[in-house]
Design goal:
about 290 residues; alpha/beta; Rossmann fold; eight-stranded parallel beta sheet; two-stranded parallel sheet; 10 helices; 10 strands; globular; Ergot_Alk_Oxidoreductase; NAD(P)-bd_dom_sf; NAD(P)-binding domain-containing protein
């Protein structure tokens, strides 16, 4: 079996490739890279892995001949002036590229987000909504893995204590394992098509849990600082890292995830739930090793 991961450079793509290469069924894996210089040294010489050049923004560059299943990801759109429109275009490119290879591709697995069933009011999550809409019917079997907030994002920032306390998180490793498993289940029965489920970690964690884990793993007791960003400070906070319109999209996404927000109020309704196994301490331990 040959599974393509497109694009392969995002962390979720890398985790999916590693899980596929470690799988006992020994599938062949093809990573699609806009820049072949970004192929990780650890996998580029693996006997069951190959890297090919391709860009989801350029449909003519996408060559899926020989693929049995495809794992697709919307790459970050931080520098785009119209990120939501661009996300739909990229997904449409993947769908068209699949159509060009006839019946070869039997299953498409898309890495999505909780809240992707909502058309408005979710900020950056709307990129996943648009991509899902474009990818329906892209292959005989379509799977949408709607992931919770990534634990690894804590390596960069804690945006709001309430957000972290009440929103379930998931690790990138668990996302990779899940996408690999779903891709390798090609031709097995699905309850629905598209088959949609939410993916969470083993449990919920608060900012205090993060604080305690970092202190325990670094032995820097009473030296790790956690700063709370209030709701009215979100615009200024995200403006420090992103340009418009990305900053505004992250503000809206954050508010949608808070208790009382549109995603928080809907994310458990009507969808199947799967849980990963990677714990917070394991994730933070890996981050500290990097």
């Amino acid at each position: 079996m040959n599974v393509f991961v497109v694009p392969a450079s995002p962390k979720t793509g890398q985790a999916t490739i590693r899980s596929l290469l470690d799988h006992p069924s020994q599938p062949h894996v093809t990573g699609v890279y806009r820049d072949l210089g970004r192929v990780p040294a650890k996998i580029k010489d693996h006997p069951r892995f190959r890297a090919i050049k391709g860009d989801v923004a350029d449909v003519s560059s996408l060559k899926f001949a020989g693929a049995d299943a495809i794992v697709s990801i919307t790459p970050p759109q931080y520098s785009e002036s119209k990120p939501i429109t661009r996300a739909r275009e990229m997904a449409a490119n993947v769908k068209f590229a699949i159509s060009r290879v006839g019946c070869s591709v039997k299953r498409l697995v898309y890495v999505s987000s909780i809240g992707a069933h909502l058309e408005h009011g979710t900020g950056e999550i709307r990129t996943n909504y648009e991509a899902e809409q474009a990818l329906i019917g892209a292959a005989p079997e379509v799977v949408f893995v709607r992931c919770a907030y990534f634990m690894e994002n804590w390596a960069l920032r804690n945006t709001h204590d309430t957000l972290l306390k009440f929103i379930t998180k998931v690790s990138v490793k668990d996302v990779g394992r899940t996408c690999a498993r779903e891709a390798l289940a090609t031709s097995s029965p699905m309850r629905h098509n598209p088959y949609i489920f939410n993916l969470y970690g083993p449990k919920s964690y608060s900012t205090k849990d993060v604080h305690r884990a970092v202190e325990d793993l670094t032995f820097k007791y009473n030296k790790v600082k956690v700063t709370l960003v209030e709701d009215e400070q979100l615009e200024d906070f995200f403006a420090q890292s992103y340009r418009p319109p990305t900053a505004e999209l992250f503000v809206e996404m954050t508010r949608s995830l808070l208790p009382g927000g549109i995603v928080a109020g809907n994310m458990r309704e009507g969808y199947l739930l799967q849980r990963g196994s990677e714990t917070l301490r394991e994730v933070i331990g890996d981050i500290l090793k990097e």
